[in-house]
Amino acid sequence: MSAARIDGKELLYQDGQVLIVHTATATKGHIQIYPKKDVVSVDELDEGNVQHMMFCANYCSAVLFELLGAHGTNIVLTEGDGLHLDVFERIQDDGIDLQWKPKTIDQGEMTSIGSQIKDKILIGVDEPVSEVKVKEKPPEEITVPEEENYLLKQLDKIP
Q1: What is the pTM of this model?
Q2: Domain region containing 33
Q3: CA 157 vs CA 27, 126, 151: distances in Å
Q4: What gap in Å lies between CA 124 and CA 50, rounded to an integer?
Q5: How does pLDDT run across 61-101, given as a tens digit for each residue?
Q6: In CATH, what number is assigned to the domain containing residue 37?
Q7: Dihedral angle computed from the Cα positions of residues 83, 80, 7 and 18, in that order, rounded to the nearest 10 degrees
Q8: For the chain, which ranges sit under pLDDT 70?
Q9: 33 within a domain of the structure (yes/no)
Q10: Torsion over CA of 11, 15, 17 and 23, rounded to 10 degrees?
Q11: CA distance 1 to 38
Q12: Rounded to 5 degrees, what angle do the CA atoms 75, 76, 80 make?
């Protein structure tokens, strides 16, 4: 993790896997979580590092709920120049718009693209699906000799 990446940001926490900084650029509780390894894609991290980053993001969300009275949080994974997680606190009617405007394409092009995708998705094609028949056996009756039955023995005990 390069020190240049956290210039101008307040370091909140660090351990062997992550750095957590407060940036306050998008909202007053905007937190960024960086892996210690310099990577540009989540595919470059092992499962343990990704899990730890998500745990930290969840923990930061809980802190924002309690400290700032947030109504919700957004956790955004940013890849590219440097992989990091952004955690934003959200308050009702805060004016932050994370929606994107979908592109419109004509119906013919959409059908063509859909067909191409369908042709490439081969989930379960090579493996025939077969029904598994389960034979049910009647439950076996278990008999316990009377002298070994703890349920009956407890009735003989004097309180």
Answers
A1: 0.59
A2: 3-90
A3: 69, 65, 11
A4: 29
A5: 999 888 888 888 889 998 988 899 999 888 888 777 777 77
A6: 3.30.428.10
A7: 10
A8: 1-7, 122-130, 144-150, 152, 159
A9: yes
A10: -10
A11: 6
A12: 155
**Which residue type sits at 94?**
D
Q: Is residue 47 part of a domain?
A: yes
Per the structure block, which two tokens stand in for 59?
């923990």
- Domain total in the chain: 1
By the 8 A CB rule, do 35 and 18 touch?
Answer: yes
Is residue 52 one of the residues assigned to a domain? Answer: yes
Of 21, 16, 29, nearest in space to 3 by CA? 21
Q: Which of 27, 31, 28, 26 is nearest to 9 (CA)?
A: 31
**Residue 142 domain-assigned?**
no
In 3-state terms, what secondary structure has residue 86? strand
